[in-house]
Design a protein that fits this description.
This protein is of the alpha+beta class and about 475 residues long. Helices cover about 40% and strands about 20% of the residues. It is built from 16 helices and 22 strands. The model has no long low-confidence stretch (mean pLDDT about 90).
Length: about 475
Amino acid sequence: MKGEKRSSSLEQRVLGFIQEHRLVSDGEKLVVAVSGGADSVCLIHILANLQEELKLKLHIAHLNHQLRGADSDADAEYVASLSRKLGIPATIEKRDVKGYQARERLSLEEAAREVRYRFLAQVARSIGAGQVAAGHTRDDHIETILMHLIRGSGTRGMRGLQPATLWQSGAESLTIIRPLLEVSHEETEEYCRQHQLIPRLDASNLSLSPLRNRVRQQLLPLLKSYNPAVAEALLRTGRIADDDINFLDEQVARLWDKVIRQEGKGLILDKAGFEQLPPALKRYLLRSAVERLLGSAKDIEMRHIEEMMSLATKAAGKRLSLPGGLTFAVEYDRYLLTPDPTALSPLPPLKGEFPLNIPGETLLPGWRVEATIVERGEMSDEDDFTAYLDPAKSGDRLLVRPRRRGDRFQPLGLSQSKKLGEFMIDAKIPQAWRGRIPLVCSEEQILWVVGWRLDERAKVSRDTKQVLLLRFEAD
């Protein structure tokens, strides 16, 4: 009788947790990940008892990772039997985790997690479910906080596991809910004993190879020898970190549009606005920006954020490669976070040399160039992509090309030549743009850095009678 009361009490605690965090909605289909261990068996049994009250339609999902031979097959058979006893439909499948690990060059833990979550996302999609319930417990929560601390994940990592999180990988996404997050593993084992549920034992949990197992079996017992209440201390730290992160989330949402804008597949951060922020908001804004582009910041460690913070103080032209194929680049008045910095250039790619038809029209990749001979009196105001040259000085055999190493020209108004690279730095031309800027050249020299500056030696003078008008238009 006493055991039944404890059992009922646990079910009510789980029900209260689900309702408090609004983890499910009436009439919802819910996939439950069941490995066969005590935590997941306890979870499916409790949800089965609560499904009428919560108005849920449950579906069991079990993945055979094929990592433990006959034991893995026995786990799958156990879950199938449990499914029949509870009268809950199940999807039970196999995946080649080791093959995936080899192809993607991941650790076995990472590969198993990735394959498992992809499988769960596919099951959820196949039955029209929006969420998957996992049997993560209070113990998992504590271990995760410690693992994040060891890896240097920062304040966000100190939150540990959340009641509900979004997992994303490529086109796949999955909302994971954790109804047992305030229940200990010891309680799930006791629940299984009371209900004569005989869960499977996973011998791999005894291995000291995975970091989580070492944290569970070695680090936590050691910490408890220093502080018997270390678990409560870690949980308290997680709650404080959660409050801090919620506050930072609100601040980032408030200032996002003031500091960041999206262009193509990348994000542009306003340098002046960013520099005014306190360091805590800078760090969190950078992490949020990475997460926005990658869908997840799981591969981003605090050291990556600190490297971005350090680079942000450096001169324009500096770059940093980040996980997920992202590049963080410093420009003169902005920062770029993008998988392809050159894609943020407003100029089309330019490769090769293209002779200009003078007079006439020339089509280049991304450009249409119009060349016209006019009288000096017909000159009007120039814009960045229109220039007037003295044809007696420039000649009529002109071409368009991108820059080359060692290029020099004499910018209009200067008495001597200058390295083109130095001019571009002084003109604060973003590095990602420089290789795309068209250069109008004669056989001897650069005549016009299109969009920026004419060469002093090609300018129209008082003695010029006929003028070469060049106009570049984006095609």
